[in-house]
Amino acid sequence: MTTLCGTIKKVLRMEMKDKILPAITPESRKKQSYAITERVIGTDDFKKAQTISIYLSTSTEVDTTNLLTEMFQQGKKVFVPTYNKNVMEMVKLDSMLDYESLPLTKWNIKQPNISDGRENALTCGGIDLFIVPGVAFSRKGGRLGHGMGFYDKYFKRHSETYPDKKSILMAIAFKEQIVPVTELPLAEHDVILDYVVTQDDVFSSK
Length: 206
Hints:
single chain, alpha/beta, seven-stranded mixed beta sheet, 6 helices
């Protein structure tokens, strides 16, 4: 079952990355990203969250720049991914000026340097709301990542560090990234998201 699940995931991941995501026009990406931002901002979980983890988007992902701006304007504490070898950490981002000054990785992604000594989410009370990326999602909170398991492993570390904290897991996705549950098999270690937000809907696994 594990092997079959992994094979199906691999095929779906390739189809999304090679065909479906590249076919989304820049105009559609911009329009959908704006609508998704408005939906996220309107949720009670976003309004209540004081500490938020968010990914820094690439050109093929839902653009998170406007969400970042809104978070800083509302005085949220913002944490973004960086990497210590094969381990993902969430470190504090101070402002949009801080964001603009971040270096680019070889994959053309803005990313803080792990050696910068930034505040770490695992040592400052944890995250209220995670806004996560992915390759494909189901309406029931299933998520297909990029295959490295960074987020699932981080969620586990976070829950072990703060066992009494109920963090909300929210994905943001283009409508093209939503697939039927039957096409997105989940392994035992896969974490179910609380919400998947598109331009038209907020899907809940609750």
